[in-house]
Amino acid sequence: SSMEESPLDYQGVELLVTEHWDARCLNNGLFYVRASYRTLIFFNLFLRQIYINPYTDNQNLFDAFLSHSTLDTAVPDSRPLLRYALLDIDRQFGCAEGHAAEDSLVTFHFWASDFRTREAAETERGGGSENAA
Fold first, then answer.
1. In 3D, which of 70, 16, 56, 21 has the Cα closest to residue 39?
2. Buried-exposed string 32-52: b where 16+ CB fall within 10 A, e elsewhere
C-alpha cells in the first residue's frame, strides 16, 4: 500500500533527482528544479565547468556539485549547496535499468547503463528465474 504524499514532504527542497538503479550515484537524466536565484547560480556554475572541461563526466560532476557520492576537483567551493531529495526509483520513477512498480509509475526514463542491472545481479546470484544474457 502506498502513502499519500503531503505538500510538506518536499518543503525547502530545491532539486528532486534520481539515483541510478544499480548504484548510489546520481542520474541526471531526470530531475525537477525549483526556480530560484540559488538554482540559477548552481546550474550556471555547473554548465560553465562542463564547458571549460568537456571531458568531465557530466553525471559525476552533477553528483559532486550536490556532494552526493562523488568528489571532483572541478567543483567550485563557492557554489550554492542545494537542498535536494531523491525520487522513488523503485515504484514511481522507473527507468530501463529497472523498477519494481506495478501500477504506480509517474515517469519512465528510457535509458540503461552499461553496467549490470539489479535484475541481472539477482540472476547471477541465483535470485532470479531467468538466465542472464
1. 16
2. eeeeeebeeebbebbeebbee
Whether residue 49 contacts residue 74, with contact meaning beta carbons closer than 8 Å, is answered with yes
For 26-66, the pLDDT digits (tens) are 877 778 899 999 999 999 999 999 999 888 888 889 999 99
Cα 106 from chain centroid (whole Å): 15
Residue 21, all three cell numbers: 538503479
Beta bridge partners of 107: 93
Angle at 51 between CA 47 and CA 54, to 5 degrees: 115
User: Structure pTM?
Assistant: 0.66
- From first CA to last CA, the distance across the chain in angstroms is 33
pLDDT in tens, 67-111: 999 888 889 999 999 999 887 766 555 565 655 556 655 555 555
**Distance (Å, whole) CA 37 – CA 122:** 44
> The C-alpha cell of 94 is what?
522507473
Residues found in the chain: 133
